[in-house]
Design goal:
mainly beta, single chain, 146 residues, 2 domains, 10 strands, two-stranded antiparallel ribbon, six-stranded mixed β-sheet
């Protein structure tokens, strides 16, 4: 590409020094090669596919460690905020997940698509994931909490 050799601006006539791209007075582009279409091809617009709805998989139970013997227990959601008894050591405790002694290991939910039982870590609550059996999207939801 050749640079502006200097001289009078073709638009306003003011004297413009060499090697400038635009006139200092009227901002006219001084090099005709810069008026050519860009060499970068702009791709055509393609709208994104619509986001599909994601059905909710409600938790039905929990896996947690007994606060006394540290063995894993499977407990149905209906026993939340009630006194429960460990089937291993027979210790009784209040099933309140806000207590620091209760360590939630995972929760149980059925896939809304294939009805298979899923066991998932607490970090997947309120997250959009894929069922490991049917690969359909679902959102783990815990309405029993609180």
């Amino acid at each position: 590409m050749t640079s502006w050799p200097g001289g009078a601006c073709p638009t306003c006539g003011e004297e413009v020094p060499a090697n400038l791209i635009r006139c200092r007075s009227c901002s006219t582009i001084l090099n005709d090669e810069l008026h050519e279409p860009p060499s970068v091809v702009i791709p055509e617009y393609r709208p994104l596919p619509e986001v599909t709805s994601c059905p909710s998989a409600e938790t039905s139970g929990l896996f947690l460690l007994c606060p006394v013997c540290d063995r894993e227990l499977r407990i149905n959601n209906k026993y939340r905020n009630q006194n429960v008894r460990c089937k291993h050591c027979k210790a009784s405790f209040l099933l309140d997940l806000s207590q620091p002694l209760i360590e939630l290991k995972s929760f149980i939910a059925n896939c809304p698509h294939c009805e298979q039982e899923l066991r998932a870590a607490p970090r997947y609550l309120n997250k959009k994931v894929e069922c490991k059996f049917c690969s359909e999207p679902l959102l783990f939801n815990d309405k029993s909490a609180g």
